[in-house]
Every structure is written in C-alpha cells, then in structure tokens.
Amino acid sequence: MSATRGEVAVGDSTPDLPLTSSGHAGDSVFKGLSVGSGMLIMAILAAVAIFLIGQSVPAFLGDAHYPNQTTNVWSYVLPYLFGTVWASFLALLFAVPVAVGIALYVSHYAPKFLATPVAFVIDLLAAVPSVVFGLWGINVLAPQIQPLYTWLADHLSFIPFFAGPASGTGRTMLTAALVLAIMVLPIVTSLSREVFLRTPGLQEEASLALGATRWEMIRQVVFPFGRSGVVSAAMLGLGRALGETMAVAMVLSPGRFMSVNLVSSNNPNTIAANIALTFPEADTATVPTLIATGLVLFVITFVVNLLGRMITGGRRTRPVARRAGKEDADR
Questions:
Q1: What is the DSSP annotation of 116-130?
Q2: How far apart are CA 69 and CA 125, in angstroms?
Q3: pTM of the full predicted structure?
Q4: What are phi and psi of 117, to 5 degrees?
Q5: Using one digit for the tens of pLDDT, what is the confidence trace for 225-268?
Q6: What is the DSSP letter of 267?
Q7: Cβ neighbours of residue 304 under 8 Å, at least 6 residues apart?
Q8: Residue 263's closest CA among 181, 145, 182?
Q9: In the chain, which residue ranges form alpha helices assigned H by DSSP?
Q10: Residues pairing with 267 in the sheet
Q11: For the purposes of burial, counting CB atoms within 10 Å of the CB of 206, is it exposed (0-12), middle (13-18) or buried (19 or more)?
Q12: CA 215 to CA 101: how far, in whole Å?
C-alpha cells in the first residue's frame, strides 16, 4: 500500500515538468534579452567610435590630402586638453576627500535614522541637470567667492596659482573646478559608501576587541579593504568630469592657451566646452578639427572609465578567488 502511495506520489510530480520547461524557456528569453542589450551597447559604442574616426580623418591627415584643412589638430587640441585635465584634476582634488568623509560618516558614524536621508540627498545630486549647476555657479557661487579671489591675488600673488589680476566676475578655473567637484561628488560618494559597507564585520569587531578606537579600526581595516574601490570611484568621477560640457561652458571665461592661474579671468578652456561653443559657427574646414578633438576626449574618457572598471572588477574577484582556492585546499 505504501509502495502504491509512493508510486502515486512519484507519478503526481510529473505535471510539474511543463512548469519547469516554461521556467527554462523564460530563462532563455531573459538571457537572450540581456546578451542582446549588452551587444547593442557595444554596437552603439563602436558606431560612435567609427563616426568620430571617419569624420576626423581630414584633420589628422593634414593639407596634403585635404587642401581645405589648414589647422594642425595636435597644436589645436593641446591647450584644450590641458584645460580639460587641469579642471578635472582640481575637481577630484576637492571632491574625493569630501566624498570619502561623507561615505565614512554614512557607513560607520551616522545613526541609522540619519544615514539613509543623508545618502538619499547625496544620491539626488546626480539627478540635477548640469545646466542647473552652471546657472548656480554663475549667479551664486561666482559672485560669493570673488572677494576671496581678490584677497588671494593681493596677498599670494607670488604663487603662480594666484597671480593677479583677479577676475572681477568670479568666472575662473577655480569656480569651474568647484562646480565640477559638486557634480562628481555623488558618484564618488555612492561607490565609496558601498565599498565601506562591504568591509567584513568580523575584522572590524576583531580590531575593536583588540583595543583600537573607531578611527584606528577604520585606518587598519576599512581603508585597506576599500582602497581599490575608492580609487576606482575616483577614476569614474574623473571620467564624469572629463566629459562635462554645459556647466564648464557657462561658468568658465575661456581662452585658447595653457595657464595654471586659478583666480584670473583668462582661463584655458576644456575640449567639451570648446566644441559646444564653437560648433554652431564652425565652417566645413573647422568641423573635422572639432570632431578630432572630440575623438581625443572620447579615447581619454574611455580609457579612464575602463581602468576604473578594471580596478573595481579586480577587487571583487580577488576575494572570490581566494575563497575558491581555500575550499579546494580543504577538499
């Protein structure tokens, strides 16, 4: 009788097979959509690269092949490349320490009822359009900070960064860098916070149990664990700063030269801002040069983001590899 029940029980499980097959079909469809979406992104990226390369050929080949092209692309792009790197470096210099501090506060110091609202507000900054940041930089930040530029030029003019005369409007490279720093702050903060939250709790508790203060525990455990994550977050923020256009174009008072002066009204421009300001009035001989500068920016941004992803991926796979090796050794 029990055997009969067992046979019935086994037989009753057969109607579940179509559901299992349907589940496998759904998995296949989902996998196909995921793979297709990933391939679509790669195709779009390749199409953008092909367009930039094809349209910038006259600028790179020069006068021999294209007589109408009279501008040397390398001498043209060098001042703008300097301005792009200089502004992005200053933005990271201001943003990374603040972002790491906020991430540490949210992950290890703030009470739970306060940590979530603070993290939410920081993440909301990423949704603010760059034009809004540009308007805020022109109408609020620049006039408020201009007296500081005058003081720096009057008292610290022997330092090349603060050599006068100071800008009367506050539209300087330092203002643009501060705006960029606020724009990249959410990216660096969010990624750093997630890395700090993944610190093994047992290691933190062991450090505290050995008599370390909270700050000593952070220096001994949290920072070593999250170092590569913070570096990758900074590099992703750098990629965001390198490609920013409207905020820099609105705030900066630009020129086509290289200068490290932070308080003067004569500032180097960035590649993205120069394209946005020059392209509407460009003729057929200038457009290839502008597209060539866009190709240079595309390559730099792609390499920076790729390095950031590689660092992040390496940090995520190393613990898994070590764990897998330990399990194999135990076996």
A1: HHHHHHHHHGGGS-H
A2: 42
A3: 0.78
A4: -60, -40
A5: 888 888 888 888 888 888 888 888 888 877 778 888 888 888 88
A6: E
A7: 235, 238, 239, 242
A8: 145
A9: 2-12, 16-61, 73-104, 112-124, 130-136, 142-155, 173-197, 201-209, 214-217, 223-242, 246-251, 271-278, 287-330
A10: 254
A11: middle
A12: 12
CA 180 to mean position of chain CA atoms: 11
Q: What are 41's two structure tokens?
A: 């992104």
Q: How many CA atoms lie within 13 A of 149 on its CB side?
A: 23
Torsion sign over Cα 290, 296, 301, 302: positive
3-state secondary structure of 268: strand
Which residues, at least 6 apart from 14, have a Cβ–Cβ distance to it below 8 Å? Answer: none
Tokens coding 171: 């539209």
**Token pair for residue 256?**
């086509």
Q: Which of 171, 125, 163 lies closest to 144 in space, CA to CA?
A: 171
Summarised one tens digit per residue, pLDDT across range 111-151 is: 888 888 888 888 888 888 888 998 999 999 989 999 999 99
Backbone angles phi, psi at 255, to 5 degrees: -150, 170
- Write down all domains in the chain, each with its CATH number in brackets: 78-324 (1.10.3720.10)
